[in-house]
Each structure stands twice: as structure tokens, then as C-alpha cells.
Amino acid sequence: MTRTIAVMSALIRPLIEPRLPDWVEARYFANKAEALELAPEAEIGWFDMYDQANMLPVIHAATRLKWLNSIFAGVDGLPLDLLRDRGVMFTNGAGINAITIAEYVVMGMLSMAKGYREVVRAQDRHEWLERPPGRAELAGSRALLLGYGAIGQRIDRLLAAFEVDVVKVRRGPGEGTLTPDAWRARLGEFDWVILAVPATPATEHMIGAAELAAMKSSAIIVNIARGSVIDQDALVEALQHKTIGGAFLDVTTPEPLPAGHPLWSLPDAHVTMHLSGQSQDKMFQRGADRFLANLAAWRRGDPVAPQVDLARGY
User: Fold this and answer.
1) CATH numbers and ranges of domains, the chain
2) Taking 70 as the threshold, does the pLDDT of residue 26 lie above it?
């Protein structure tokens, strides 16, 4: 029997190896050097490494690759043109972290609405507050949600339970939605602007000085997409001049954010160090389960999902 060679990180081995079918020959790497050595034989590659930049030479070396899999949802920075030219199918981690990221968004909104950071600081000072530092309620507020993939859909469902009026930005018309050419004219209506879009050339700096100026002075922007979707210099200026009410930023440009960057010390900026997707203990198990299900489907010739559109970049 001809076996298909799959090259994967040793980190996933305990979750994968006992369940692999006999037509797969698995080879595991522990570091970049081992991955580069194994890559030329790979027909299936799961080349994830903590530093995504280390994946680039490995993908280039994988000249026999038919299917690339990743647990990462964001694919910006990966050689999508090369994969398309080689006819490689690419499945990513879209949706695997949707639960924890959506919960992080709600946590951030509640934290900022209630001024919870100041409550924690008061406890650190052993100070009994007489008045709450935040009095806003989520119920009855309005949120603009840009990006309606797996994460955006779950954010929508969670916020419905808090009685937040969520308006989605989608390509197609529908109830409670705005089309991509319509949302900017309506920015002044919203208390929250939530960014859950993929990082593509079309979304780079989609929130800039003009968009920030169009928001309510009390509006809070929540970014769990990529730092590049906001013009960060314009955001700093808006926060310094209190043009908007605040920003909850799980992502920044660059990452890690330099120690001297003004976002660290601005009182209305909450920086959460790109931790939202990692705030769980099920990511690798979900990734393994999805990969194995896709492996069986691929063998049968059935569709696998989610596939990255290599032309669109997500």
C-alpha cells in the first residue's frame, strides 16, 4: 500500500498519532531545522511554529506538498501566491478559537463599561471605593460588527443575550446588516465598533483618522482582528484628544508592543497582548479533531473545510 507522507509538529503528536489511519506515514519535527529537513517529502504539511515567520522557508521547501494545514486562523504573511501556483490546498484554523475570542470581546466590553480595571487597581491599593468607576450598561447599547465569520457570528450571539443591538457589516443585504460601502456613513450611531475582519490589503487601516473622527465621542473600539486594520498613530491621537471613549486592543502593531509605546499608558486604552485566542485549553484538541475529520474526507475525495481562498487571502 502506498502511504501518504505527512510532516507535522511533534507538539500535536500525542493527539494525532493514536488516531492516524494506516495509509498515512507521519513524520514529526521538533524545531525549524528538522522541519526544513523533512519538508521536501511532505505531501501533507502541518508546519505550525510559534514564530510564524519560521514557517516560510519550510513551505518553500515543501515542493511535493498537496495540502497545507494550520491551526492559525490568520494567514497574512504566508506565501499564498506560491501555494496557489503549486496547486496546494490550504486549510486553516478559522473558527477553532471563536468561543474564547468572542468571550474575550464580551469581557472587554463589560470591563470598560464598568471601569473594572480601576476596581482591580483600588484593590491593589487596599482602597474601598465609594462609587463605581463605570456606570454604562451593555443593554440598550449599539454595536457595529465588522467581520462576520465564525468569530463574528459568535460575538453576535453572545451580545444578543446582553440586549446589545448588533449591526453586522456583510457583503449581502439583510436585516440588521450594512453593506461594505455603507457602514462609514453610519459610524456616529454606535457605542461600540468591533473589528473581527481578516488581515488583507482591503482591510489595512480600514479605521483611520476619518473613521475615528466620525465616531461618537463616547464610542469604544474593540479590535481582535489584526493591528494593521487600525491606523495606530491615528488611534493614539484620538485617544490623547479624547475624540473617542476608548479602545480595547487584543492586537497591535507591532507585536510585542514596544515598552515605551504610548498605548501602554493611555488611560482609555486596554492592551491585552494578543491573548484572546490562547485563553483556553481546547485549541489543540479541536485542531486535531478537525484535521483528522478532514483527513478522512480528503481520502474519500470529499470537500474539506475551512479552506483558505488563496486569491482573497482568507
Assistant:
1) 4-94+281-300 (3.40.50.720), 98-278 (3.40.50.720)
2) yes
